[in-house]
Structure formats: structure tokens, C-alpha cells
Specification:
single chain, 473 residues, alpha/beta, Aspartate Aminotransferase, domain 1, Aspartate Aminotransferase, domain 2, 2 domains, 7-stranded mixed β-sheet, 4-stranded mixed β-sheet, 15 helices, 15 strands, globular, pyridoxal phosphate, Aminotrans_3_PPA_site, Aminotrans_3, PyrdxlP-dep_Trfase_small, transaminase activity
Length: 473
Amino acid sequence: MTIDAPIAPVGAALDAATEADLQQKAKDHLWMHFARQSGMEAGNGVPIIVRGDGHHIYDSQGKKYIDGLSGLFVVQVGHGRERLAEAARKQAEELAFFPLWSYAHPTAIELADKLADYAPGDLNRVFFTTGGGEAVESAWKLAKQYFKLTGKPMKHKVISRAIAYHGTPQGALAITGIPGMKEMFEPLTPGGFRVPNTNYYRAEEMGFHGSLEEFGQWAANRIEEAILFEGPDTVAAVFLEPVQNSGGCFPPPPGYFQRVREICDQYDVLLVSDEVICAYGRIGEMFACTALGYVPDIITSAKGLTSGYSPLGAMIVSDRIYEPFKHGQTAFYHGYTFAGHPVSAAVALENIAIMEEEGILAHVRENSPKFRAALERLLDIPIVGDVRGEGYFFGIELVKNKETKETFNADESERLLRGFLSKALFDAGLYCRADDRGDPVIQLAPPLTIGPAEFDEIERILRAVLTEASNRL
């Protein structure tokens, strides 16, 4: 089933002169994010995506691709939604911009109210940002100030998991657990410490042997161990994604977050649910912590809040954490010019309305097992070691030896992922992510509107390309 609504019929490819002009301008002036510039410098050019339609994107040559990553875990309701474009147009005509610095505007107020209604427990206060990294940065700053205001000024450290990604600002990068993404920017903000992640497929390499449920308790208890080692009077917060993105979609074992919540309560440490990817339907609920049965102190979010039609992030905070800021001259001296932008907030409200009217959350919950089953058919390919994830968020880990779980070394991973898979999958009509932050994985997070027919199509493309990759090895 597909519930996409395109703005207009797909256009033709760009003419050769326009294509050449854009490629030259890109080579001369465009600095791409998280990308090697050498491809453009060598004259190979860059894929230019010119439009989107439902769960498809189209390049400047007129070729059609399945958007298997929702842009970047963003386009929840699909490309080309006329309603979202119209909501942006209407709001821009009425009030294009005004800041939230001591003032407010209707769309930010209405959106804050809507998000508070969906957030669990007493998470009733919404602080808008421009994106996910800024939401994480805001949460760490808030945690530090909160404990200063409540008489515990030494609580400033944060704990996160190995290989976890939490953003690029200096503070968020210090929380990030990927050494290769941090070393070139060191020294970073001090105070970030790491614990094991929840990759059960690699649990034995972490020194654990036992059942999945036991692994959940073991992994959670490593957080308590870290708090005690650093000193409970110095640890402010634990930052955890509901399903960890980097490394390839690590879901939490049963009971993991319930144990983490107990630990945080015991030592007065804030639990931050980093839902920049997992919120807004990706795991089948508006907030993934609801799907997984825990109530954090803070939720950080962005991406799918507007389905990418306009930039916006949000930090959602419990009444308990907000309490010290309600009185006297106390203020949280922090903010962003474009946070809670009227146009972005209007788009977010319309995006949530689409989700509600079309039953997107129930659609994800109903179809997630079918998506998993389609991907698990790939386990008969020699290099496919593990399929894992939740909702519409899955990772496929690739291995050199399925029996031993032996992974690829750095050179082999480079040849496999960048030398073959990334281009081969794209050429075959599937845009997704082939990544080696951790062990080599292929990640899939398509728009939340697709269904079994599209799952089968994705599986067919993956099967052909992964089989060829396996044969090459």
C-alpha cells in the first residue's frame, strides 16, 4: 500500500548543457557534508537529485530510485506532498519569520501543545531548535544548568554508548561515541564517557555470554558501573537512542530501558531519549520511548517532525526539569534565531495532521513485521550476517564469515562499501546507506507510507547486488 500524493507529474531529465553547468558549479563551489570532495575534484561529478514523488526520487538524468533512507531518516510521509508545500506558502504569506526570544507566534504555540500531548509522562515543555544536533546540545546545557539550580553544581558529565552518533556541535560530538569522527576536532567539550551498546550480534566480543534478556540487564548495568566509577555527584545525564543508528540499528533488549530508568532514578541522573531519528512514526509511535515502554526526562527530536519540508528540531522536557526555571529571574540563556520558525512549525502541524488522518503510526506497526520478513530472506546470502531493527528502521550487517561472524578489515570494507556497494545499489535504483561506522552495514529507513509491494522491490534489488558482491569476494 502506498499513501503518497505527488505535487505534479515527474519532469524530464535536465538537458546536457544545464547538467554540465551545474556539475561545474558544484565542483567549483559546493562543499558537501560528510563526503569526500575528491570525487568532484577528479571530474567524476556528483549525483544531482532534482525531484521527489512519493517514495521515489529522480536524478538530473531522469532516472528513478527508491528512496530507501527517507532522504536522511527524514521524509516520513513521502515526497511531493502538496499539503505541506501549501502550509508553508500560507504561513510565509501571513508571518514569514519571528523569533521566540521573549515573544511567541501561533504556530509555535500550537505545535508545542501538540507535541506535549503526544509526549509521555510529564514531558510538557517544548524548547524548539533548528535540528537534531542542536537539540542534543541544548539538552546537555539544560542538564548542567538544572543541577546548578538544584544544588548539585558538580553534575556535568554525560554517558552515552559506543559507536553512537549524537550530532556535530562540540558538545553533541563529545557525546558521540565514534572516535574516527571526533579525533580531528579534539579537544572537545570535556565530560563525555562511553558504555557498551546493545548490539547482541556482537555481544560476545564485549565479554557477554547469555540470553538476549540477560544481555539487556548486563548492558544497562554497565551504565550504573560508569556512574559509580565517575562519581554519581558528577554525572548529569545519560544520552541513549531508542534504537541506536550508528553501527546499524541496534534495538534495545527486553527490559533494557526499564533498568536504565531505575539506575537514573537511583543516582539522580537525567535520562535523555535521543529520538532525532526514531521519533515521529519511525518506530510506530509518535515517540519511540512510548513504543518501548519508558519515560525519559528529556526527548531530543528533529528530522521527521516536518518530513523534511522545512528544518525544525525540538527538545521536550519534563515538568520536574522545567520547575527551577519558572521562578524569579532564572532563565535558560540559550536559543537559536530560526528555532520554532513560523513556517517550519506550520509544516510540522500539517505533517502531524497527515499522520493522524492517514493512520501512519498504525500502518508502520502493522507492516514492520512484513518489512523485517522481506529483509530476513536475504540471510541466505553468504555475506549477510544479521538483520535487525524496529519499525521502518533496519540494518543489515555484512560479514566475511557467517559461522565465525568475522568482519571485514578496513581495506576490505573500503572496497566493499565505497568501491562497490554504494554505487551498485544506487545504479540498481535504490538509495540507501552503506556504512562502516562500526561493522559494515546497509541501513534502510524508507518513507512510512510504503508497504509489502515496496518491501519486495527493495529486497529484490538488495538480493541482486549483495549476491554479486558475495560472488566477487
